[in-house]
């Protein structure tokens, strides 16, 4: 498919861009352009464009506004040591996007078209990629139903779009240990639901628990299973790992209620290559508390595209707090983070051929 490229008539000037890149924050300021591709029943994918980033014009009856037929991805572009630009495992994002689309009864965008759309935006807005430590270009591909109708069925028209923003650290303090809240009354997903899909509804349902966490001075929420409210599943936007005193790692299994994180999979492969045993099995909040007290679990960390690896220092519950290890993280978490970031930024060789995709 050929992309029509229409550069913005009002690009951000160099001085303003330099100020933005000094301290971009996370998800606050966006690049000059966006990519759109449309899908219409009977016609398929068409009208691929790179244009100035502008608001969408949506009919008040657009299906996404009423039935939440929407999916998205999160990925990053990195400035390599030689000045080039790379993506980390973008093929995995493309595949997961298709998996999410299948679950949400949406058209499946071909993986190569997904990747070309991402690369088109990275190439035209490459000047927005921060070069400092921890900086990257966060890329948000998403798709939504824009057919105007009121009726519960899959839509017949969709828009696929890619936008991007320069970012720094996701959590304040960078790689410092975070505090998480274990709510009593909220769950993220249930068997047969959309927990394994990256759709906005999953995150909307988690916001009330995140608000509760903030009131308790916590950075994130850890969700338990819907059936027994006992088994740890994942954080509000990240997967979770536990490092035991024998050096092994444990993480909850992908049971259909947990998002199959690309960072999660990368860590599993990386840890095993370094000689760690990694097991995927159910793990309860009560067992975590006991293992933290006895020292059986010496570290825990959250992981995802936005935060990479974030050590968990304290878990807060209605019954009281418990601390993991020294409350500040540990050597295994730090080592895995260093190696993963090194691969992403090109200072270390990728563990698997094909993990790094050169854009420029």
From TrEMBL:
**Pathway membership of this protein?**
Amino-acid biosynthesis; L-valine biosynthesis; L-valine from pyruvate: step 4/4; Amino-acid biosynthesis; L-isoleucine biosynthesis; L-isoleucine from 2-oxobutanoate: step 4/4; Amino-acid biosynthesis; L-leucine biosynthesis; L-leucine from 3-methyl-2-oxobutanoate: step 4/4
Q: Which residues form the signal peptide?
A: none
* Record GO terms (molecular function): L-isoleucine-2-oxoglutarate transaminase activity; L-leucine-2-oxoglutarate transaminase activity; L-valine-2-oxoglutarate transaminase activity
One GO BP annotation of this record: L-leucine biosynthetic process
Note whether Transferase occurs among the keywords.
yes
The record's annotation in Gene3D superfamilies points to: 3.30.470.10, D-amino Acid Aminotransferase, subunit A, domain 2
| Record function comment | Acts on leucine, isoleucine and valine.
Q: In which family does this protein belong, per the annotation? A: Belongs to the class-IV pyridoxal-phosphate-dependent aminotransferase family.
Q: What is this protein called?
A: Branched-chain-amino-acid aminotransferase
Organism source for this protein?
Answer: Nitrospirillum viridazoti CBAmc
